[in-house]
TrEMBL record:
Classification via InterPro entries: HPF/YfiA_ribosome-assoc (IPR050574), RHF-like (IPR036567), RHF/RaiA (IPR003489), Ribosom_S30AE_C (IPR032528)
This protein's record includes keyword NAD: no
GO CC, alphabetical: cytosolic small ribosomal subunit
Classification via Pfam families: Ribosom_S30AE_C (PF16321), Ribosomal_S30AE (PF02482)
Sigma 54 modulation/S30EA ribosomal protein C-terminal domain span: 124-177
Highest taxon of source: Bacteria
Gene3D superfamilies per UniProt: Ribosome hibernation promotion factor-like (3.30.160.100)
CDD domains membership: RaiA
Protein's name according to its UniProt entry: Ribosome hibernation promoting factor
Keyword Ribonucleoprotein in record: yes
Subunit structure: Associates exclusively with 100S ribosomes, which are dimers of 70S ribosomes.
Lineage of the species this protein comes from: Bacteria, Pseudomonadati, Campylobacterota, Epsilonproteobacteria, Campylobacterales
Keywords, comma-separated and alphabetical: Ribonucleoprotein, Ribosomal protein, Translation regulation
Amino acid sequence: MNISLVGRHIELSDAIKDHLMHSIDTLTKYHLDLISVNAVASANERKKGVTIEFTINVAGKNTIVITQRDDDLYAAIDIAIDRAQKALRRLHDRLSDHKNEGLNEAKLAASNSIDLHAATEAMEDEIVPAEPILFKPQEVAEILEKLKESGKVFEVFYDIDGKMRVLYKRSDGRFGLY
């Protein structure tokens, strides 16, 4: 990163240069590819104050220009650096949006590793043909004994009269017949 410090109608002392350099170093925390940062401090006698202008060149992105005017040069530098950090943070967040990051890569990986046709077939309900079992009429007592032995909750059967019946275990431990 190239850094240039310029003073127009004002002399930059070592303390001001150190403050500027330290402030500019804080801009690197966003891990953006900063090409150059130009800081121009100028004094204006008519407007009674100082102006600091930061021009930040980010690789592959637009140039960020921050201009701040104040009576005190140190205050102007601090306010301008805060504004620059806010602009860089927004740029960084826009570039590395965590909600969308990796979504396209995940879709690509999923589509490469999974056969979509096989996956859709696996998700469909599978119908297995079975041969019908012919039910002979049974006594309720026989079905009651089977139900007690098997641990099932209910049993469907045809009774002696040829009606389809359901014998089920109730929650109170007794049995019901439908």
